[in-house]
Amino acid sequence: MISALVAGTGAFVGLSTPVDLTVDGETVMARTFGDTVADALAAEGVEVRDGDLVQPGVHADLSRGMDIVVNTAKSLELSLDGHESTETTTAQTVGQALAELGVDPAGAEISRDLDAPLDPEATTGVSVVTPKTLTVRADGETIPVEATAASVEEVLARAGIDVSDTDLVTAPLSAPVVSGQSIGVMRTATTTEEVEEPIDAPVEEKKTDRLLEGRKKVEEEGRDGTRKVVYEVGAIDGEEITRVELSEEVIDEPVTKVVLIGTGDPEDPDSYEVPADEGATMSTEDIKAMVGGPGSPWYKIVQCESEFDPKAVNRQNHKYFGLFQFGITTWQGVGGSGNPADASPQEQFMRAKMLQERYGWSQWECAGMVGVG
User: CA-to-CA distance for 277 and 216, rounded, in angstroms?
Assistant: First the structure.
């Protein structure tokens, strides 16, 4: 009986294939009568699932003393600088998993030891906050920050910046950060301001045929008023952004300015008035336009008589004055007073037309010279 048992045992050992099997870092010596890696794994009760890494492959032929390595797939919940993700890895430890995922642990804050094993049956959670260099801009200063911070709020805390509910931050406080990022904090403020402001005087226009058509004359000067206004002023970092009127109080009512608008017929000089000082600052170009421009008979006469100078005085006898070289007696004959050269260009033209209507173009020596009349 003993001889038979020994003989049988020798046959088992002689016919089976010995292999070294390592599953997630634990190694055992195994024997199998199978021909492939899959047979050896089945003989040891090792179930291969999706994501598991088997070396050599499950279909490889067995050989005596072969090393078979199985790294099972494991679930990893990774929080990397605030970014959450679920990863699958065949690594054995936290450090190996981070290396596999390309995460450099140097200087980082890690929630587990790098040598801590990963649980093959349950999800392992790992939080990693890497060191970063950032810039904070607040209160007129630029502050460099080097810290293992995961969020905007943590960076601001490291920079010593307090943030109130009314402040504006360029990114949400809970937002993750990256190296090289710039974070701005803007201080907002709301104040009330009381000021006095002018109230523009309203303008009333009245038409009158006592002024030449298109001319204006102020009949009543009017006066601006004053009001007291309360504003709500919104500012960011001391710079005003909004201004909203809350209330007003009229302190001094404005007085209406009355302006007369002329409708007088230019062809009827007797129908309208021309103030003596009106147009005293009239330019040469305005005078040329007033008398009808090049080609008009009045233009030719004024050019010849005075070269468009309303203050002109005859150089030979000093008896004729203004644009149309009125003599004093002739000037008075058409209703003028004083020296014609002291009257406005408009009045001079008005009275020249009156003279022409009564006596024709022969009143001007220049008329025959320039072909008028």
Answer: 13
Contacts of 365 by beta carbon, 8 Å cutoff, 6+ apart: none
151/176 Cα distance (integer angstroms)? 4
Burial annotation 234-265 (CB, 10 A radius, 16+ → b, else e): eeeeeeeeeeeeeeeeeeeebeebbebebbbe
Instruction: Work out the mean pLDDT of the chain and round it to a whole number.
Output: 87
Between CA 278 and CA 287, with CA 284 as vertex, the angle to 5 degrees is 55
Global pTM reads 0.48
Is residue 267 included in any domain, yes or no?
Answer: no
Nearest Cα to 21, choosing from 46, 3, 48? Answer: 46
At 7 the pLDDT is: 37
Query: Looking at per-residue confidence, does 111 or 275 come out higher?
Result: 111
pLDDT at 104: 87
Domain of 64 in residue numbering reads as: 2-71
Task: Taking residues 199-208, report their average pLDDT.
Answer: 94
Residue 11 has pLDDT above 50, yes or no: no
Shared domain for 203 and 255, answered yes or no, is yes
Cross-strand bridge partners of residue 77: 86, 125
Q: Do 194 and 180 have their domain in common?
A: no
Say if residue 114 is exposed, middle or buried (CB neighbours under 10 Å; 0-12, 13-18, 19+).
Answer: middle
Query: What integer pLDDT is reported at residue 12 of this predicted model?
Result: 41
CB 327 within 8 A of CB 260: no
pLDDT in tens, 280-309: 568 899 999 999 999 999 999 999 999 999
Instruction: Tell me how far apart the alpha carbons of residues 81 and 127 are, in angstroms, rounded to a whole number.
Output: 8
